[in-house]
UniProtKB/TrEMBL annotation:
SMART domains: AAA (SM00382). It comes from Paenirhodobacter populi. InterPro entries: AAA+_ATPase, ABC_SmlMolc_Importer, ABC_transporter-like_ATP-bd, ABC_transporter-like_CS, P-loop_NTPase. Keywords: ATP-binding, Nucleotide-binding, Transport. This is ATP-binding cassette domain-containing protein. One of its GO terms (biological process) is quaternary ammonium group transport. One of its GO terms (molecular function) is ATP hydrolysis activity. PANTHER family: SPERMIDINE/PUTRESCINE IMPORT ATP-BINDING PROTEIN POTA, SPERMIDINE_PUTRESCINE IMPORT ATP-BINDING PROTEIN POTA. The keyword ATP-binding applies. Residues 3-237 form the ABC transporter domain. It holds the Pfam family ABC_tran.
Length: 366
C-alpha cells in the first residue's frame, strides 16, 4: 500500500495543529513521526486511522480516497501507548478479539481463529503467556500482546502511538530490537509516533521530523543526524551549542574557535550560526582562549563542562570523554575545536535570543 498525504490541515478552534502536511509512505516502509510534544504527531496518526478528520487536504491509499472511508473499513492495526488490553480476557482472547467481532460473513471459523492466534503467539515469542490475564503481565509483555492484537486482523497498515512510552529504558531497547525484526518479517507498512530520537533512528527506515504542525525534514536516520535541514531540527537532535561565526569563502571563522576540522560549505559570505553537539567539540587549554571553564562535572564516562563565553556572555555546555580530556578545572581558559557541526545563515529562522551574540561577534571582528 502506498499512502499519499497532501496539504493536510487541521485546526482545533484557534490552534492550527497541522499546517499543510505533505508525505508519502511506500509499501513495507517503517516510518517514524518524531517531534516534541504538541507538534501534531498524534493528530496526524489519528487522521490516518480515521479517528479524526482534517479541515482540508488529501489522504489517499493506493490511489483511493481514505477520507471517505470509515475507520473500520481501513484495515488498520492501532497500538496506543497505554496498551488498553481487555482486562477480563486472556492473552489468547485479546489477540483473537479483532477476528471474533467481525460480521458473520467475513468471520473465520473458530478453529481458524485459534490457529491464527497460536501462529501469532509463536511469531511474537510469547506462547507461554497465552492463558494469562493482562494484570499478570509486565509492561513489555502487554505491549507485545497489544501488537499481536493489532496484527491479528492482517492490517494493511500498522499505526503505533508511542508504543514504548511507559516502559523503562532497558525494556524499551529490548522491545525495539524485537519490533524491528517482527515488522521486517511481517513486511507491514508501519507508521509510529515517538518523541525519542534514539527510538526513531534505530527503528525507522525514514524519519519525519515534525515541529509546530509542519514537517521540518524527512530522511533516512543518518541523513537527518548528519545534515539537519533547519535550526529547529538541529536543536531537536541535540545540537545545543550555538556559536555565531563569520563565513568567508565557505569557511567559518570566529575568535577562539579552531574550525580547521569543519568542511568548506557552499554558503554566501557573512554572519552565520554554527550548531554543534556538545560531544563534537574538543576543548584546548589556551591562556588567550575566549572561553573560561565555569564548572566541571563528571557523568562517569563523560566530563561535562559549563563554559563562559567572554565574547557573548553565553554559557555553552560541552561534553568530552573523560579519558581524552586535557587537565581542566574551573577557571581554565580554553579555545574550542569543533569536529563536526552544521552551519545556517544567521537569518535562517533563528530566534532573536541569539541576535545579540551575532551582533557582539560582528563588533569584535570590526
Ligand atoms: N481534540 C482536541 N481538541 C483541542 N486541541 C487538541 C485536540 N487534540 C489535540 N489538540 C492540540 O493539538 C496539538 C497537537 O497535539 P498532538 O497530540 O497531535 O501532538 P503530539 O505531537 O502527538 O504531542 P504528544 O507527543 O504530547 O502526544 C496540541 O497543542 C494539543 O493540545
Amino acid at each position: 500500500m502506498t499512502i499519499t498525504i497532501a496539504h493536510l490541515t487541521r485546526r482545533f478552534g484557534e490552534t492550527e495543529v497541522l499546517r499543510g502536511i505533505d508525505l508519502s509512505v511506500e509499501k513495507g516502509e517503517l516510518v517514524a513521526l518524531l517531534g516534541p510534544s504538541g507538534s501534531g504527531k498524534t493528530t496526524l496518526l489519528k487522521i490516518i486511522a480515521g479517528l479524526d478528520w482534517p479541515d482540508a487536504g488529501v489522504l489517499e491509499v493506493n490511489g483511493e480516497d481514505w477520507l471517505q472511508k470509515k475507520a473500520q473499513d481501513r484495515r488498520i492495526g492501532f497500538v496506543f501507548q497505554n496498551y488498553a488490553l481487555f482486562p477480563h480476557m486472556t492473552v489468547r482472547d485479546n489477540i483473537a478479539f479483532g477476528l471474533t467481532v467481525r460480521p458473520r460473513e467475513t468471520r473465520p471459523a473458530p478453529a481458524a481463529i485459534a490457529g491464527k492466534v497460536t501462529e501469532l503467539l509463536q511469531f511474537l515469542q510469547i506462547p507461554q503467556l497465552a492463558d494469562r490475564f493482562p494484570a499478570e503481565l509486565s509492561g513489555g509483555q502487554r505491549q507485545r500482546v497489544a501488537l499481536g492484537r493489532a496484527m491479528a486482523i492482517a492490517p494493511e497498515l500498522l499505526l503505533l502511538d508511542e508504543p514504548f512510552g511507559a516502559l523503562d529504558a532497558q525494556v524499551r531497547r529490548d522491545l525495539r530490537r524485537w519490533l524491528r525484526e517482527v515488522l521486517q518479517q511481517a513486511g507491514s507498512t508501519t507508521i509510529f509516533v515517538t518523541h525519542d530520537q534514539e527510538e526513531a533512528f534505530e527503528l525507522a527506515d525514514r524519519v519525519v521530523v515534525m515541529g509546530a504542525g509542519r514537517i521540518e525534514q524527512v530522511g533516512r536516520p543518518e541523513e537527518i543526524h548528519d545534515h539537519p535541514a533547519t535550526p529547529f531540527v538541529a536543536r531537536f537532535l541535540g545540537m545545543t551549542v550555538e556559536l555565531p561565526v563569520t563565513l568567508h569563502a565557505g569557511r567559518a571563522g570566529a575568535p577562539g574557535l579552531d574550525t580547521a576540522s569543519l568542511p568548506r560549505v557552499a554558503m554566501a559570505d557573512g554572519p552565520a550560526m554554527l550548531f554543534l553537539r556538545p560531544t563534537d567539540i574538543t576543548p584546548v587549554p589556551d591562556p588567550q582562549g575566549r572561553f573560561t571553564v565555569a564548572d566541571v562535572t563528571s557523568t562517569g564516562a563523560l566530563l561535562r563542562l559549563r563554559l563562559k563565553d567572554d565574547l557573548t556572555s553565553a554559557e555553552p555546555e560541552i561534553e568530552i570523554a573523560r579519558r581524552l580530556a586535557p587537565p581542566l578545572r574551573a577557571g581554565t581558559r580554553i579555545h574550542l575545536r569543533p569536529e563536526a557541526g552544521r552551519l545556517f545563515p544567521a537569518t535562517a529562522g533563528i530566534p532573536p535570543a541569539v541576535a545579540p551574540a551575532i551582533k557582539a561577534l560582528k563588533e569584535s571582528s570590526l
